[in-house]
């Protein structure tokens, strides 16, 4: 997937996390997980700027699974999700809603005072 598009590349990275963690049920074990995390942290401002809610949700739950919950990137992603959540709780589509659900549930589990 590399070099197809930045969005495709970032989805590819989030899916590597999902596979490596057995769909968020275990800690990442792959030797490249640290490099994946760095790529997601560097990409976060761009994802937020683009307003890509679906991808933002995936970055948020991946960062949570490596202990980055509560950091600046994670907080920016949660703010993006919160700003796009509709009154009924939905996001722009079912996939984004599911991703946000995982991100919000993970944040509630890991961050004191969440939800705000």
Walk me through this protein's architecture:
With 116 residues, this protein is an all-alpha fold. It is 66% helix and 0% strand. The chain contains five helices and no strands. The termini are far apart. 33% of the residues are buried.
Q: Which band does the percent of strand residues land in?
A: under 5%
Parts with pLDDT < 50 across at least 5 consecutive residues: none
- What is the strand tally? 0
**How large is the radius of gyration?**
13 Å
- The pLDDT mean sits at 92
| Relative helix content | 55-70%
The number of helical segments is 5
Structural class: mainly alpha
Following the backbone from N to C, one meets helices and strands in this order, namely HHHHH
First-residue to last-residue Cα separation:
37 Å
Shape: globular
Largest sheet: none
């Amino acid at each position: 997937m590399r070099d197809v598009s930045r969005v495709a590349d970032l989805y590819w990275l989030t899916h590597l996390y999902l596979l490596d963690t057995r769909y968020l049920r275990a800690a990442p074990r792959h030797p490249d997980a640290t490099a994946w995390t760095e790529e997601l942290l560097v990409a976060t401002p761009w994802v937020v700027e683009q307003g890509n809610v679906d991808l933002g949700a995936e970055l948020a739950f991946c960062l949570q699974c490596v202990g980055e919950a509560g950091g600046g990137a994670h907080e920016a992603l949660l703010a993006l999700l919160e700003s796009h959540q509709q009154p009924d709780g939905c996001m722009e589509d079912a996939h984004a809603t599911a991703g946000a659900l995982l991100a919000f549930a993970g944040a509630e589990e890991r961050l004191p005072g969440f939800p705000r």
